[in-house]
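Usage

Read records sequentially. Each one opens with the input sequence:
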Amino acid sequence: MADDRIFGEDDEPRRLPGAGRGLAPRGPDGAVDVWRPERVVDEPAIDLAQYWRLLFKYRFVIAACFIGAIVLGVAATLLMTPIYTATTTIQIDRESARVLETSDVSPNAAAMQAEEFFQTQYGLIRSRSLAQRVAESEGLAADARFLQAMGMASGDGAAAAAPASLARRQDAVVGMLQANLGVQPARGSRLVNITFDSPDPVQSARIANAFAVNFIQANLDRKFDSSSYARDFLEQRLAQTKTRLEEAERSLVAYAQQQGIINVDETTAAGADPSGGGARSLAANDLLALNSSLTRVRAERIAAEQKWNQVNSSSLMSLPEVLQNPAIQRLTENRATLNAEYQQKLSIYRPEFPEMLQLKARIDETDSQIRTLANEIRSSIRQNYQAVLGQERALQAQVNGLKGDVLDLRSRSIQYNILQREVDTTRSLYDGLLQRYKEVGVAGGITANNISIVDRARPPGGPSKPNMMLNLAIAAILGLGFGVLLAFAMEALDQSLSTPEDVESKLDVAVLGAVPILPRGQTPVEALADLRSGFAEAYYSLRTALQFSTPNGAPSTLFVTSARPGEGKSTTALAIAENFARIGHRVLLVDVDLRKPSMHRLLGANNDRGMSSILSGSASLSDVVQRPEDGGLWFIPCGPLPPNPAELLSGARVQGFLDESRRRFDIVVIDGPPTLGFADAPAMAANVAGTVFVIEANGTRRGQARGALARLRMGRARILGAVLTKFNTKSSAYGAYDYAYDYAYGADSNADRKADT
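and closes with the structure output:
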């Protein structure tokens, strides 16, 4: 199986159509049955050159759209009403100035996200409620000057004063205010520009300032409304809490009276009665007092008991109380004096001496007094101990009795404490609500605001719209865009075949060559005679393409046809024959257009006998062949026009004629009839080695060419490719074709070409 790939000069593989699906059928000379354009595998995703060619092709359409858009832009700009834009600058702070330390009832904006806060403010400026407030504050619905400036009919009479009409006008004014309002925050700051557009500069400044003022007032009103709502709410809660507090206090007093619970004072110290909550009962008070006295008396009893025990265990005269007693001290001193006197006189007198007895009696009396006083001190200590002990016992008995009363009171104070806590809680809630109510009342009367006007709007000195340059730029862009879209649409709807690329993409047929259109006044024969002309060069290229169309070189039999008459197939057949003859081939040119022949007129040959004579059997090839000039070209004209051309071309003599011609000539070039409308061309194309399909640039429609190619393929014609004739290289600027046909071989050729043009 033959390889289905061919290689170019860059050794890059290019797969032929049908690769992977088997080779296309080939004729006797190896020509493929249907020639399809080569497809490069690695094609770019976007072919900029193709788009450029498309734009160049429709350059006049695009230019017309561009100029038309510019003209419309200028006209529309000149017809537009001048619009004046006034700007008011305000500053929006996230927190207002704090006059008091009390917190506001509104949410703290500092705790909110900054972007959310400012976007909320912008939305409030654009809101319908603010626009309606501006309309009402400025009386715009009844302002004839404003309505006239904004293009609204003010109306008059009873109909305009009707409530329904006023409401509709008010809605229209509000909508117009919103439509012409602009909010432009300054990036990186807290400044916001409020703009308003209108045909009247004074009205623009007035409305812009009105929006700023009313926005500030609306912000204050919202704060006041929130404070008013808070006050109303707190008033209701205060009334409810006050009622609950009164009921709780009544329940507490009633229960205390019923249970006989009497509290004398509030507790603030450690001696509080734990069962009494915040107050101390009488029983608890008495128990506390008695317990304090009992503690004191117990301490006194302990001290007295210790002293009595000391008295019982020690000598009486050694007791500190006895020794420190003043009377005993005086008696002791007196006894010492008497004893000293007695001892002094004892050295003089005898003990029985009356004076001595008297001193002795006085000493004894003093000792007796001392003992008596000591015993009295001892008795007093004992009595004191007994008195304290009795007092302790009495107090202990009273304390024990009050303990029972207190425990009983505590069991009865459980419900009392519950009621007391209810009273305390309700009172605390009431005090908190009352304090908050007073704070809100004070804060609500302060008009601190976080929005202020930085610059008031002034009537602008010139209009901001329309902007001529901007409108022209937009019109230019739209015009170019529309022109390009129109070019693509026209290209998609275009049925013409104007470039070789059109032939390849729209017909899926390879282009063997493109022949330029001739200048006016120049005939094809004259152009072919000028071997250096672009016309002749195009057919040289066609000859080269045909030489490489099959593995064996140029097909031995070539059939030249077109979709319709007048496309240049006869000129193409003549040029192919002459070019092969110039390189030394024996070429036979045959005119088989048995309906409207023209080749004999191009060559100036005799048409008395020709192809029709051979096919009808009245002449042989040697009888009708002619040699127009010296060289390798021979010619067979059409001959007399037969009544049945299709039958002659479908007969057996056609194949016999071709066999004989191939034996005697190297190449047989057949100028055939048009394909559409007749069966002549398909019948003839089925018998030759290759068919060349001629297409007139900008003349043959895509549908016509497809129909003709379909008829040829149905007749099993082996189509080598297409030749595009009458191709305008300057208008199409089709890449390498433009270069090839403008190439000159020297100054003389350039001069001749300029003279021809």
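Summary fields computed downstream for this record:
- The radius of gyration is 67 Å.
- The chain has 28 helices and 15 strands.
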